[in-house]
Amino acid sequence: MLIAGHPLPPLLAQSADPGLRAWRAGLPGIVEELLRRWSLTASAPFLPGGSSAWVAPVTGPDGADLVLKVAWAHEESRDEAAGMVAWQGHGAAAVLRHEVRGQTAALLLERVRPGTPLAQLLTWPERDEVVAHLARRLWRRPEELLPTTEAAPFRPLRQMCAWWADGAQERSATGADPLPHDLVEHGLELLRCLPAQWDGEPVLLATDLHPGNVLARGDGGQRRWVLIDPKPYVGDPHYDLLQHMLNDPGRLVEQPGPFADQMAGLAGLDPSRMRRWLLARCVQEAGEMPGAAQAALRLAADGVR
């Protein structure tokens, strides 16, 4: 399959999800129609790309360097464009145009320069400060960012947590879970209950905030960091730091409690609650993500309840 004269990026080509495969079959026509309607000229897509989106540098009608993202609007990522628009001026890459048609979400974005991911520029401890600082810029009540009528559709965090807890419960019932049954039950109960137990201000969350989704704009003393690829929900800000921690399996396994304390301190959050959230996510990811089961066991041994 060729799109704008170029092969599909490998991760998108390899995805076996039936819904995505059905959507992918019509992708060449979708992209060509967008390029024509928005007067864009596409270059080769970024590699290796994502598993559910075609993303490529494009040239606008005025010669501007931009990025076109054409994504499968599945349940998890359906509000990406709305979140990016809400966060304009608060740390997200600039959005020039966007639309959702059926199962397709299209975003025309600035071409962030140099656009190097945080994951390639700084060490893990240095990345902590960047992610925490960016998160604090993003955390606003939806009503502060958008008119109430537009802010209302963002889904509550408890929906995603319940969905993930149900999936982990089904996996555990097959006997495939590497953790003791009582720890699984406790961790998944935390995942279901923690969103409702947050009595602070519910804020708009990226939920997939990690060093691969944070890009550098500018160099040296002029460098700024911008968000891409959020999966917005509304709720407890503690949750938003978890993916960053899960992406560092070394510290996650060796010192999950101190790692949670570090992130909570940088973000101005409660370290005890941060540890409980980390336990919940590690239980949910056990057997699926490197280091998650070991981290859950260590947190439990440290008395995190």
Short description:
The protein is α+β, with helices and mostly antiparallel strands and 305 residues long. The protein contains 14 helices and twelve strands. The chain has a five-stranded antiparallel β-sheet with strand order 3-4-5-7-6, with helices on both faces. It has a three-stranded antiparallel β-sheet with strand order 8-10-11, with helices on one face.
Write the layout of secondary structure elements.
Layout: E1 2-3, E2 6-7, H1 10-14, H2 18-25, H3 27-37, E3 41-42, E4 53-59, E5 65-72, H4 80-86, E6 95-101, E7 104-110, E8 114-117, H5 124-138, H6 142-145, H7 148-151, H8 157-173, H9 181-197, E9 203-205, E10 214-217, E11 224-227, E12 233-235, H10 242-246, H11 249-254, H12 256-267, H13 271-285, H14 292-301
Antiparallel strand pairs: 1-2, 3-4, 4-5, 5-7, 6-7, 8-10, 9-12, 10-11
Helix pairs in contact: 5-12, 8-9, 9-13, 12-13, 13-14
